[in-house]
User: Fold this.
Amino acid sequence: MRFWDREKEVRDLKAHIESEPNSILFVYGPKSSGKSILVMKIMEDMKKQVHSYFYDLRLMPISSYKDILAVFFRERGWKQKLKEAIPSIASSAANYFEVDAKVIEDIFSLKLNPFEVMEGVIKSKVKKGKKVVIVFDELQKLKDVYINGERKFVSELFNFFVRLTKVLHLSHVIVMTSDTFFIEEVYTGSSLKNTSIYYLVDYFDDDTAKKILIEEGLSKEDADYIVNMSGGVPWIMAEVISNGDPKEKIENLYLQTKARLIDVLANAKKKGLYEEIIDTLKKALDNKLDPINDREMIERLVSKEVLFYDPIRNEIKFQTKLDERAAKEILNV
Assistant:
């Protein structure tokens, strides 16, 4: 995805990283709003003063506690060994905590606390004058992993984050997610009150989106049409400025969106939830959804990427204008 016009977000997040660590930062927003590329851009801009550990958990197969440990740790010198074995490979060591082989062995056999080891590595980086930033993209992938079948790993991890930020002021922690119900779950389950701040990265507003599309070579007419139909969704904007007719591409995306919503309704009918889903969509169109009384159906439609729920602002809206248009057409509104 291209990086466009996020001057305010870049300024705000850089200021956060330059300050003393004191809070876990949740960067949240709807799917494909540009959260990941924004934070990666900032890490690249600040690489001379920041040592970052960036974990994109969408790319990592994780089903157990040991899988998680393998995500975090590598034997010291692993990168050089890899280069010697495969000279052409391009790898970054910044995503791993590098320790001696015996330490890794003791971590995996549960003789050592992995968080204590990570804290020690971070302290060594800080002593060398580096700011440390740990970034997790879609951390909710870890929410069903347990330690010894008893304690949820993600709860222990967030307690460690609190220690790194609020207690020791040692490292920044940034958690990116589009699963806003996960934010609520973690908040209530990990004693995070007064330890976290939340930063929304939303789609572009209409005027900004039109300006970007025109700068990318589209006519004003096409830019107006695209934004009026789909809003300022970065991945849609990137799609329509590639080869082909922009209007045709938007209509194809709309047909895909409509087909996805029809599939949601068909599955709801099989489960006896059709009328409830229809009622929820009508309320969404009338802006009358209640996050408490309509909770179950909201969660279902959020999980299907039809709706977006902002728990900080207590707002519920359609994921995109395409989803709203599909709901209106299907419901004959």
Q: What stands out?
A: Residues 206-330 form a domain with the Arc Repressor Mutant, subunit A fold (CATH 1.10.10.10). The first strand starts at residue 24 and ends at 28.
